[in-house]
Amino acid sequence: SSLMVLGFIVAAEVWDKLTQTKNTAQTSRAGRKGFNLESHTVVTEDDYVLTYHRLSKKGSGGPDLSRWPIFLQHPLGASSAAWLVPSTEQLAYVLVESGYDVWLGNSRGSRYSIGHKTLNNNGKEYWDFSLHEMAVFDLSAGVDYILKQYSEQMDKLLFVGHSHGAAQALILSTIRPHYQAKLSGVLALAPAVYLTGLSNTSTTDQTTARETIDT
User: Fold this and answer.
1) Which of 108, 178, 182, 201 is the most buried (most CB within 10 A)?
2) Is the pLDDT confidence value at 64 over 80?
3) 115-116 and 48-57 as β-strands: parallel, antiparallel, unpaired?
4) Residue 196 pLDDT grade (very low, low, confident, very high; cuts 50, 70, 90)
């Protein structure tokens, strides 16, 4: 349910604040490792303001435009920093070294995507979303934004998602099937798809989430 996801997001935000200094330092460290990390603003249909990161190699001639751009999407409770720490052996760096144009997404409510055109992120209305909105609005906006950077040079990208990040691609492809034509492939790492093994503790989770938001 939407409120259960809200509970996860609230818990993730608390944890993220505790590790804010570490995450920020790790992300900015990309520059000291010989890479450029650009910030791009992506606005969704429902006015959430997201920050995407584009990773490139310093001093290189740029990505190989004959290859698909690659979109990496983090799991629930994480951010684009998940693809950048702890070392340059992480997937994002390896792909850049191989000549790919690498984009790192950030879902609404995560460390780098906490904005909205009209809503305050301290209010309940801002947090009234679920995985559905992350997929249908956030991911679609991200795909369109990345492909727009290529004009007509590229009409598809390769998507790599971890856990709920992978689930977003599957939801988007189902709800808006025309986006299937914009994905050259979907690599799902531990996709959060089959949830039948989970016990239902929604009553407790919903109460906790509601109390957290109301304080």
Assistant:
1) 108
2) no
3) antiparallel
4) low
